[in-house]
């Protein structure tokens, strides 16, 4: 134990400062070179026995998340076939070609949509553990690093998915064409068997999902808000403090010597995405949002950290703060923050 060989008073102080001091240092920004500051190990944290059950459940979903991102990145769309079909409405072969190009793509879009629901339940599983009243948010994040890391991976996936979706107009074009064709087939009593795996009700839900500029982020924001309203006995601060603490930890890791502990440069971008993700969730869940003076998130500091990165790697993240937060344009947001987020 760290207490052996020391006089009792000194040992108590030493133990206390080792265990408790870590985080207090980070959150009061008292970063020095000799303290064991709180470093959230996004690269290697492994689950302890008490975390294993939740970790394994969420891990299944995160493994699928990688496949989803690869599929989305490879998504090319049926733009050319659809264009031909619209130009030659009477030519049967051209119509069939477009239809057979679109059907498998819509099956993919259905998979993405269904995955958003799995992501939602994983997020709620993690929030259950990370916001329980048994410890402070800081203790939860420090002691359950493997689950905190999974929470970070969900946010990272979400922002990455939405960045890819935003820059791929084919997704909505393909889906609109699919819906138009299905309703035309219905009117003409033609069998639309090939497309029946997406019935009308599912098509409506998918349509709402893809209509959002950032569908996965909306899913997570709604899920977090729902988590808060479904748990009236849990103080809302448990959830908002968990989010703001995570934002602080990411920010501190990015702007201090901690950054040199990352094994990979990728982790910097990962950390930035997670920071932005928790800010957006906080802004949706906290009644006053992330931008007010009383917010627990140092918004100016977070925006500054983003702006110090190469513009190409953070433009999407700055846009996420500009366009997917809820309170940025409130009167309570300082002019300075609004100016910092003005597009150049």
TrEMBL record:
Domain CYRIA/CYRIB Rac1 binding, by residue range, is 37-338
Which GO terms fall under molecular function for this chain's record? small GTPase binding
Could you tell me where this protein is found in the cell?
Membrane
Q: Which domain of life is it from?
A: Eukaryota
Q: What biological-process terms (Gene Ontology) are attached?
A: regulation of actin filament polymerization
Keywords in UniProt for this one?
Answer: Lipoprotein, Membrane
Its membrane topology, per UniProt?
Lipid-anchor
Task: Note one Pfam family from the annotation.
Answer: CYRIA-B_Rac1-bd
Q: Identify the GO cellular component terms for this protein.
A: membrane
**Primary localization:** membrane
Stored InterPro entries = CYRI, CYRIA/CYRIB_Rac1-bd
Q: Which family does it belong to?
A: Belongs to the CYRI family.
Q: What is this protein called?
A: CYRIA/CYRIB Rac1 binding domain-containing protein
The scientific name of the source species is Amphiprion ocellaris
